[in-house]
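User: Teach me something about this protein's shape.
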Amino acid sequence: MNEKAPHDPVVVESNHRPDTTIPMVIYALHLAGIVTGGLTSLVGVVIAYVYRGKGPDWLDEHYRYQIRTFWIGLLYFAVSGLLTFILIGFLTWLLAVIWLVIRCVKGFKGLQEHRKPENVDTWLV
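Assistant: First, the predicted structure itself:
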């Protein structure tokens, strides 16, 4: 017979859930970007691009969500920076920070439940 033994690493590998450490680190890097001026978020998006397409669909959706979070957040924070000249930028910057925190918390929650994040394509939360 050509069946694999239960102790075979291939069989063991197929029965476990994928490691979610890298996506969790990326969410943490996005959050740390609030205090580092986006530097850690830039590192996070590079990691997301590298790991995208190398896992199950639900995990790949997290990488897509993280990439979108970076680019949309970059736009929101850039617009907020421009709007600081007319003082409303401080309010829009605060809203962008809240938006980022909510997206990362939703992402963390989805990872813990081993499911894709909700509303991946939205520009909001």
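Now, about its shape. Residues 83 and 89 are 4 Å apart (CA to CA). The longest helix spans residues 57-83. If you'd like, I can walk through any region in more detail.
User: That's plenty for now, thanks!
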